[in-house]
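Input record (one chain):
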Amino acid sequence: MWIFNGISVTAAPSVIRELAARPDVRRIDPEVTIQAPVLPRATATAETGPPPPEPNVALVNAPALWNLGFRGQGVVVANMDTGVDGSHPDLAGRWRGGNNSWYDPYGQHPTVPTDVNGHGTATMGVMVGGDAGAPRSAWRRMPGGSP
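The corresponding structure, as predicted from the sequence alone:
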């Protein structure tokens, strides 16, 4: 595996025991799949008001800042990734625009925000994405794009 010093093996139990007995094998862990919890998506209604913030947002105490009026107004953010699809429904209205708002280090798309992969659009969506309600598939405009 490229991210840690390990390998993935499918083998008979006798081979696993043989590997485990080697002095250069620190440990053997069975393959485990962990399912992410499914959180219900809250919606605003006239009776309930806006939905509560997602748990991770509440954990960093963002609602307390919002209550003080801090909502990111006047802040400019950027990312260095695969680009950004400036026409994405959840990002288009948050694009500052102008000659100093898009940088293409390779000069392939020097004037229009472009993402040939989808990953940069997804990370920018985490940073400043709106709530236009674009389906998750819209984050994958190009092959290889990330959700």
